[in-house]
Amino acid sequence: MDKLKIGIIGTGWLGLPLAKNLRIQGHTVIGTTTSSSKLALLKKEGIQPLIFNIENPILDQQLQDIDLLLYLVPPGMRHKGIEYFISNIKGFLKSSIPLGSNLKTIYISSTGVYPNQLGIQTENTTIRPDSPTSSALLQAEQLFQNQLTNTSIIRMGGLFGPRRHPAKFFKDVPVLQNPNAPVNMIHQKDCIGLIEAVIEQKMYGKIINGVAPIAPTRKEFYTEAFKSLHLKQPSFGIENSKNKHIVSAQIGNEFNYTFTFANPIDGLQHC
To answer: What is d(CA 131, CA 109) in angstroms, rounded to the nearest whole number?
Structure first.
């Protein structure tokens, strides 16, 4: 793999371990954070730290000659709204103009962009948003594609891994609905592996679904998730959704990646 100068916007749950991996591989990594208290941690890991205000995104001189930009800021729509999410994307892209429209970029999106409709959906599926969330996610992707033409978009499924155990999100929910719906999940280790594979294989200008190739049902997955934390088994309700199933037509075709946890159930012991 060529040694690159990489800028990572967002060194949180996914961005920090990714930055550490890339640094170990010999890349020069600049990592942004919104917290001054995190600067020392980044520096200790050999990552060049940079304060970044998503609401006033002025890109520092340190980023002017990077080879690759990774945007890993989570949408945050649940707390501050869709308009806030889109305005931040627009502000960031406006500030990135000095970096050049041909800059190689990886934007982490979400499988939430796909509408809730029955059956398999791949990167080749024509997306017709059916909610404000899917509409906003698609708009954000298009903003990146239109301004930074060498952008690869990875639509990650449900993220889980260290300090993010899926059972904890539902342990206080009395009944889990849609027990037969497939889960579209991906472990943190495979999130990082996919991003690294895109860089190594120079898969720019692509859209890739980041989901484990095996999709157990919600009942299968959360039964094992609760069991792994020694929690009382959940109760399951009725089917009331269209059970979308997200798969990748890219992986195994022109893009090669072997999942560490092809079945997300196997990743539950690594949370």
So the answer is: 16
Q: To which residue do tokens 């579209």 refer?
A: 184
Condensed to tens digits (0 to 9), the pLDDT of residues 211-252 reads 999 999 999 999 999 999 999 999 999 887 778 999 999 999
The sign of the dihedral angle between the CA atoms of 52, 56, 57, 58 is negative
Of the candidate CATH numbers 3.40.50.12650, 3.30.1360.40, 3.40.50.720, 3.30.1330.10, the domain formed by 74-163+185-215+245-261 belongs to 3.40.50.720
pLDDT tens across 134-163, in order? 999 999 999 999 999 899 999 999 999 999
Whole-model pTM?
0.94
Count, residues in the chain: 271
Pairing of strands 28-33, 207-210: unpaired
